[in-house]
Amino acid sequence: MFKRIYFQIIFWAIIAGINIGFTVYFLPLRTIILSTLFVLFFQMFVFYFNVGVLFPRYFSLKNTGRFVLITAAFIVFVTLCQTMADYYYFSKLILKGGPFGRPHMMMILMRSFFWLSFIDMISTVYMMQNRIREQSEQTQRLIAEKLNTELKLLKAQINPHFIFNTLNNIYSLSYMKSEKAPEGILKLSQMLRYVIEECEGEKVTLKSEIEYIENYIAFQKMKTPNEQNIFFEYFNTDSEILIPPMLFMPFIENSFKYSKIEEQPQSFIKIKLTTDHQKINFTIRNSVPKSGRPKPGAGTGIDNVKKRLNIIFPDKHTLSIHQENNEFIVDLRLLIL
Predict the structure, then answer these.
(1) Whole domain around residue 89: which residue ranges?
(2) Whether residues 214 and 324 fall in one domain
(3) pLDDT per position as a tens digit, 291-334
(4) CB 32 within 8 Å of CB 20
(5) Measured between alpha carbons, how far is 246 from 226 in angstroms, rounded to an integer?
């Protein structure tokens, strides 16, 4: 708003200076001031009538001809009004006895038409810029609303996905009548509390996310009495950094699913998490069995996290997912601002 007012003040100061410049060398100061005010009155009337009435009501990219005709008729009408007022009243009253006498009516007409057309063109360009800016702002708002809605939907998919998997795990422990079932239920309650309470917010601390990952790994280890090669390293981490909840979990869940770590003793999962100021580096490596098919699953977790990353960290993250020999590698780098 301030920029618009500032622009208009500068604009009218320039127009007034131009009007003064044509008369400053051969008319007295009083006449110059009155002449400038007289001309500015008609010029400002054209400018603001176009801004307030003609452009908002009649301008359309689909039918510019109508706007041009109406504007041309308006300019002609105002030009005639200014010319008549100038020739029969203003020039007669103010310029009588001046060094050049009264100007010819045709000269007044041409001069008025030129300046009023120029002012009208400036006002039209001014309004077009405003409309383009408003449309751009509206587009940005719609994009932001769409992204926010999509992010909420993506977050809403996390909880059912998590609960489905963990209940399956509890069922497995109970079915095998494992002594670890009560501890598993306790771990599950801690994890559910985190998911239901803390994950409702937009961000969680990195410390909370690390604790959740540790509980998840401990929960997975309960499913089999065999020793599992699972390594979770986190060092040089700023535990108070805020991140979106459960951002790394789809990658961790996939590593358990595709490594078949519960079935094959030689399988492994290596997770590494570090921070450097406002940068987070997350890497996970898991073995890929030479034979056999991975466990069936919906496979929506990775797509989910990719969408979340694109929404929350546009141009502020890199994600590499690839396989080297019999090892699957995910490398995620985030810039937290």
Answers:
(1) 2-139
(2) yes
(3) 654 544 445 568 878 888 888 898 899 999 998 888 999 999 99
(4) yes
(5) 27
